[in-house]
Amino acid sequence: MTKNIMIVGVGGQGTLLASRILGNLCTALGYQVKVSEVHGMSQRGGSVVTYVKYGDCVYSPIIDKGEADIVLAFELLEAYRAMPYVKKGGKMILNSQKINPMPVITGAAEYPADIQNKISSCVDVTSLDALELAKQAGTIKAVNVVLIGVMAKNTEIPYEKWVETIKTTVPEKFLEVNLKAFDLGYNY
Predict the structure, then answer these.
(1) In the chain, pLDDT over 70 holds for what percent of residues?
(2) Contact, 82 vs 71, CB < 8 A?
(3) CA distances from 34 to 17, 19, 29, 61 (A)
């Protein structure tokens, strides 16, 4: 059986590190893994979508609408865009942070109103202020690992395996703060 995880956010939020942690974890557990950054802007603020698929036999890295077991959403508008990808019985883990896209910044568009309620009315969602938890861990850059922690709590994979993978994936100088961020998310 294949599991499908979609990670959505904006450039600079650490979505790629999150996908690397997931990919490394699933590989260490003996699964076949496919990771694909579908569209991504290297500039801060651009939309980033990454797919992580794992299982006994994975043929394609792409996740179609209605196929995601979990959507890990780093930002509200990106979560809203990803709603159609959550499968029936799937889950969204949502950072409640708003990051204005360029059209909103320039005044050409308005940030859509009431997104969080629209998402909650359509999919099973765990919403949290991951930015605040990342600050508690010691850096706002740890939002990604806070969200990984929340997701980890919602999987069958043992806590220790997640911690081992973070230790082997995150650079040593950032390890302590990321382990703290993971624990804050895991215990949320």
Answers:
(1) 96
(2) yes
(3) 15, 10, 14, 5
* pLDDT > 90 fraction of the chain, expressed in percent and rounded: 84
**How far, in Å, CA of 150 to CA of 169, rounded?**
18
Q: Judge whether 12 and 45 are in contact, CB under 8 Å.
A: yes
Query: Cα–Cα distance between 105 and 124 in angstroms, integer?
Result: 30
Distance between CA atoms of residues 76 and 92, nearest Å? 11
Residue 184 CB neighbours (<10 A): 22
For 21, 53, 164, the CA distances from 119, given in Å and listed in that order, are: 26, 23, 33
Burial class (CB in 10 A: 0-12, 13-18, 19+), 25: buried
Residues forming beta bridges with residue 35, ordered by sequence position: 52
Q: Fill in the amino acid letter for 134.
A: A
Domains (range + CATH), the chain: 3-186 (3.40.920.10)
Note whether 3 and 22 are within 8 A (CB): no
